[in-house]
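Holo model, uridine-5'-diphosphate-xylopyranose. Inputs:
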Amino acid sequence: MKLSIIGSGYVGLTTGACFAEVGHEVLCVDNDEAKIARLLKGEIPIYEPGLSEMVLRNVAAGRLRFTSDTHEGVRSGDVIFIAVPTPPQADGSVDLSFIEKVAREIAPAIDSYKVVVDKSTVPVKTGEKVAETIRRYAPDADFDVVSNPEFLREGSAVADLMQPDRIVIGVNSDRALARMQKVYEPFVAPVLVTDINSAELIKHAANSFLALKISYINAVSAICEASGADVLKVAEGIGMDKRIGRSFLNAGIGYGGSCFPKDLAAFIAIADDLGVPFDLLKEVQHINTRQLDRFVKAIRDSLWVLQEKTIAVWGIAFKPHTDDVRCSVAVDLVERLLAEGARVRVHDPKAMDKARQLPIAGRIEFCESPEEAATGAEALVIATEWPEYGQVDFAAVRAAMQAPLVFDGRNLLDPLTMKRFGFNYRGIGRAPALPLS
Ligand code: UDX
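Output:
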């Protein structure tokens, strides 16, 4: 099929590449001409495993093209995907101005039956607004609006798109559904067909539930610390119940990234707007903030004052296998340590370049290796669970540090092993003094 993607950012570009990979003819559109120029030269603006190769392969095969002309995008596609940003506003509600603008731009270019698909994460009832807008600017246009939310995770976006858990298609016409089924025919995944409002709601409800799961185990981790239980064992025991499942029960310093905090705030604002406040989700947010508060307090309690203390922080990305530092709890943590006067030495295997663009960059010491970051440190903090941090030479790290304190904010390391290396180890939700044997 001929598909156009309006918005060639994280979701748009990855989705476009995967559609091309399964044989569709894809035109990726972006109003950022510099970005399109880079893509035309074969430069991929984001890091995502397998994406670069996939883009280049499909460009070479003639199935993937780029343009900054939205009209061209609308005219050439049977299905037009909208994948523009939906950033949060100060009150947590979603800024839909990019979506509205694209709807206005699409309208006059519709010259035959088009299916306009919303892929961006949007509040329930946005599809209705998109349809209204197109109709306002092109009363005779022949089109249907569809909601087809994206569930990809950063770091495994290509795999998530190629082998999705499910494909949700929110649609109110058979003609549009037939086209969408053709789009997804090459993918082996269950397809859930719903009305448009339900599809839109699924995205916010799913992400909020995942955040709730994380906050739940984080709240349990505080009880584990207070009672001497081990949250890893508790999570294992809970997760063995098939109705609950083990995933997203990793206690830590909280969830971050460009989706969960934003989507949770949006869902709260949507519920408020509809007159049905969702206070449970406000508590999910509070637990997430408190988790970092508790962690910083544990560091402060051990070091007494943080002023002039040298602290090594391993990991600055919001999670492993990505270079993304947006809404990273690791960044929040570093800010908190700096605010209390600590000297912070940071290492991250992939996110150093992005971290160097942060407002706090000038106040951080960037180190080439985890060992270098730990040199002279009075405490070592693990903020992102990169697997390589489990493989370092801890005897050397111990020798290089001024004091053997380790705060493992992601429960990456084994407490007993760390104790054997001579560290005073604190994880999340794990009793501080575990027996040696
Ligand atoms: C998430 C959703 O998983 C995805 O379906 C949606 O489309 C976008 O949002 P992403 O933001 O890429 O994807 O990251 P994810 O792997 O879900 O992790 C989000 C945050 O939760 C990270 O900060 C991670 O460290 C944290 N997390 C995750 C935990 O603290 N504990 C867990 O058990 C799992």
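The pocket of uridine-5'-diphosphate-xylopyranose is lined by residues 150-154, 207, 210, 214, 248-250, 252, 255-257, 259-260, 318-319 (CB under 6 Å). The chain has two domains: 2-194, 226-437.
Archived with the compound record.
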